[in-house]
Design a protein that fits this description.
7-stranded mixed β-sheet; 28% helix
Length: 386
């Protein structure tokens, strides 16, 4: 759905990515509008280096394009949305610098605008990475909906950058004002990310092995229970071929397949740059002597895969898009899997029982088989028949 956001500098047509006419979710919210109003009303100088972190769909970056901002995002979809929204607004491609969380940040930041992410760990990593570029005159403003900003959020700004306070709420949105302090910047300590831990002993081939998690990856300090259940019920004999760990997170599922079947070509795919970096680190930690058998891609699911080019897809789909609960991502993943699989190829999915993925799979594939279940999760198998 494309809609228009009014800001002090004009009105902007914005859309999420990928665009879906059925999608009723907007590409901006009250926290974006609140921050932009504040910048204009307060007369915040924007002629220095402006850095926008965590812009969900490019609303902030698009509205501030006249000030040549640098955007830093962990999301491939957000990056694509930003590019499309800038193009829609007639902004020249070189006006805005688009960086990912894996790129080297700017060496100086005069205005730091932070759209508070869902993951406190990702915010911690980003603040640590940007702290060397922050100086005592840097204007630091965070924004988010009231339900997204917690005491822990404010304490994190204070611990890494300096004294922090919040605004009054407007339309259920709130701003964060942080004043950088040279002593705090100097004494902030080391960035704790990435985080490494050992897997439990009851999950088969991966028992006791090492996982590497960069900040922002789901369940960063332990193995989540859905993946633990999936690892116990993966295909017994993948028989080589091309296997995709779709929405790979830290890559433990794809790494398990690679260890079980050395002949398999495993492709790790996620829309998070941090996730794909985690998957590669986890894989290489556990297969240090193997080269050329794995591929690591940041992208929009299986969109970039040729039809009929995959033998097996393994998937633990998310059911949130930021704060919104939705099955749109799962549906797109399943549809993409059917297109990318060869005839006879299989999609294996783990999910919460209540999500009803068996119904969606039957609609897309024409079949769905229950492989395993417990009180909370199911593992389902769908086959591309033709």
């Amino acid at each position: 759905m494309s809609d228009r956001m009014t800001a002090p500098w004009g009105e902007y047509a914005l859309a999420r990515f990928p665009e879906d006419p059925r999608d009723q979710l907007r590409a901006w919210d009250a926290s974006d509008a609140y921050l932009l109003r504040h910048l204009a009303e307060s007369g915040t100088p924007l002629d220095g280096t402006v850095v926008v972190v965590g812009d969900r769909w490019g609303a902030l970056t698009t509205a501030l394009a006249g000030h040549r901002p640098t955007q830093i995002t962990d999301s491939f979809l957000s990056r694509e949305a930003t590019g499309a929204n800038l193009e829609r607004g007639g902004v020249e491609a070189d006006t805005v610098r688009l960086l990912t969380t894996r790129d080297t940040p700017p060496d100086r930041v005069d205005v730091l605008l932070v759209r508070v992410p869902k993951s406190l760990a990702l915010l911690e990593d980003q603040l640590h990475r940007l702290a060397p570029a922050v100086h005592q005159d840097t204007v630091v403003i965070g924004t988010g909906m009231v339900k997204e900003i917690h005491t822990s959020t404010l304490l994190l700004f204070e611990r890494v950058l300096g004294p922090t306070r919040t605004s009054l709420a407007q339309q259920k949105a709130r701003l964060i004002f942080c004043t950088p302090d040279a002593r705090i910047l100097e004494a902030r300590g080391n960035n704790p990310w990435p985080y490494t831990y050992q897997l439990p002993d009851d999950i088969g081939l991966l028992a006791g092995r090492t996982v590497v998690n960069h900040a922002g990856v789901f369940c960063a300090d332990r193995l989540d229970i859905g993946t633990r259940f999936f690892l116990r019920h993966l295909p017994k004999d993948p028989r080589g071929g091309r296997v995709v760990d779709l929405g790979c997170g830290n890559g433990v599922v794809g790494t398990a397949v690679a260890l079980a079947d050395p002949d398999a070509e495993v492709v790790f795919v996620d829309e998070s740059y941090q996730a794909v970096a985690s998957a590669e680190a986890t894989y290489r930690t556990n297969r240090p002597d193997v080269d050329g058998k794995a591929e690591f891609r940041v992208g929009d699911g299986l969109e970039a895969f040729a039809p009929g080019s995959v033998d097996l897809v393994l998937n633990n789909p998310p059911f949130h898009s930021h704060q919104a609960t939705t099955d749109a991502t799962a549906r797109r993943m399943f549809t993409g899997a059917r297109r990318a699989l060869r005839p006879g190829g299989e999609l294996w999915v783990v999910g919460n029982r209540h999500l009803g993925y068996h119904v969606t799979l039957r609609r897309i594939f024409g079949n769905s088989e229950l492989v395993a279940s417990d009180a909370k999760f199911v593992v389902l198998r769908a086959v591309r028949r033709s």
